[in-house]
């Protein structure tokens, strides 16, 4: 067990994301989603949105300026991306200014074909200017055991 479990429950420093329509359009193009609500204001409004909305996986692009203390010293060569999920209270809209924080939720031990691993569970939560929760991006990071320790 290499991930410091005493840090479970820790919360990273807040960081601000200003959601720009150009960033939304570029992200939608990068994932190959031509839905007009991601770049056409009139179409977004016609579908009942207050403005251009972001694709559901857009929060993967929200990164804190500093890495959380609980992952800072991990060996990057042993990290794999795992499962991700997104929950929305409302869509992310161009013009939103979101305050985000990364939360260290848990660590689970697993045994796989290649040996022991730790599953690091984190959430990035984004709130609007009124403090209302807009989204929760839950992610699992796989941390493989060092060679000879699995």
UniProtKB/TrEMBL annotation:
Domain FAS1-like dehydratase: start-end pairs: 7-136
Alphabetical list of InterPro entries matching this protein: FAS1-like_DH_region, HadA-like, HotDog_dom_sf
Name of a matching Pfam family: FAS1_DH_region
Superkingdom in the source lineage: Bacteria
Name under which the protein is recorded: MaoC family dehydratase
């Amino acid at each position: 067990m290499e991930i410091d479990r005493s840090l479970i429950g820790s919360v990273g420093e807040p960081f601000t994301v200003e959601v720009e329509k150009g960033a939304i359009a570029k992200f939608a193009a990068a994932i190959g989603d031509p839905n007009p609500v991601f770049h056409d204001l009139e179409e977004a409004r016609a579908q009942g949105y207050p403005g251009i909305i972001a694709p559901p996986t857009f929060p993967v692009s929200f990164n804190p300026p500093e890495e959380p203390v609980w992952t800072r010293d991990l060996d990057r060569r042993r990290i794999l991306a795992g499962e991700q999920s997104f929950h929305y209270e409302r869509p992310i809209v161009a013009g939103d200014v979101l305050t985000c924080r990364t939360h260290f939720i848990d660590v689970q031990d697993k045994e796989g074909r290649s040996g022991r691993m730790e599953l690091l569970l984190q959430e990035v939560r984004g709130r609007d200017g009124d403090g209302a929760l807009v989204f929760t991006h839950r992610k699992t990071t796989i941390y493989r055991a060092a060679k000879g320790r699995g």
